[in-house]
Amino acid sequence: MSEITYRKIVVERFGGPEVLRTVEATLPEPPPGHARLKVLAAGVGFTDLMARSGDYLLQRRPPFGPGYELVGEIVDFTADGPRPAWLTSGTRVAVSLTKMGAYAEYVTLPLWQLVPLPDGLDPVTAAAIPLDHLTAVSVLETHGRVRAGDTVLIQGASGGVGQALSRLGALLGLRMYGTASAPGAEELLARHGVTHIDYRRQDFGEVLREREPEGVQAVFDHIGGPGLRKGYRALAPGGVLVSYAFAGRPGHMVADTVRGAVRVKAMNLRPGRRTALSMVPHEIKAGHDWYRTALERLLGMARSGRTVPRIGAVEPLMKAADVHAALERREIAGKVVLTTEA
């Protein structure tokens, strides 16, 4: 084994897309229980943009590399015990990171984080799955505990996690409402059987009171603010509000997120309904088996075509700053995936 020289994208200081810089680094041989991967594709999430600007709850200090999800090819590894048959050099794996750093040509990661790709699954498709779809599994199964026939409200249903919730919710047999205002949202949501609520023209609370007078079994929220109470009031007895993110004011995102989380916890003290917080990076750290089982299942579903992420753009890794700028201008609809150059 020898050192690998490679390039990666780092946030040198908090700010706009221009603070993303390409730097050269070296990767030493992997320590016991780790593997070196050649990154093939990395998914881009809005958490990356928030972290870059310094407005992310799980914030890292600069310099750091953005990106929570990637697909890579195993270069080499150092096992520290029995290893599965698939763990060989050249095997392609998907990973959901817990501390970011996917915007790179090579990475070193613990072996437990590596989940092998099913044969025939495209790396770009696979790289668009981990973060959004693991969040959806956490929201639906771990915290929502929904069952076939339940009625749910998905806030921001045209976003990455919202679409993952819609896809998986359709497979579970849920009746779904979704708030969205982007052009083409109604048609997009209809593909998964989601009834569209245009939150700029309609009050979702009034719509649900009219159409679901007994209330809904679950509300999935990534916005926070006044919508939390309104969503809570829309619940049927025994229903649950699951929050997996919070919108906030620029420059105050961390404080607003903490405030929102405290509000959700406080609401859980009321009898008759419950609330829950989904924080997937923490859940991955705490539940290696849950993470691996869930991601293996999601990758298999993508391979069989049962849940396929909507890819909005595929760009070279070195154009990460341009991608961030385009996402901030809302010029791209769907998941963006960065690929390493040949």
From TrEMBL:
Residues 15-338 form the Enoyl reductase (ER) domain. SUPFAM superfamilies: GroES-like (SSF50129), NAD(P)-binding Rossmann-fold domains (SSF51735). This is Medium chain dehydrogenase/reductase family protein. It comes from Streptomyces siamensis. The lineage of its organism: Bacteria, Bacillati, Actinomycetota, Actinomycetes, Kitasatosporales.
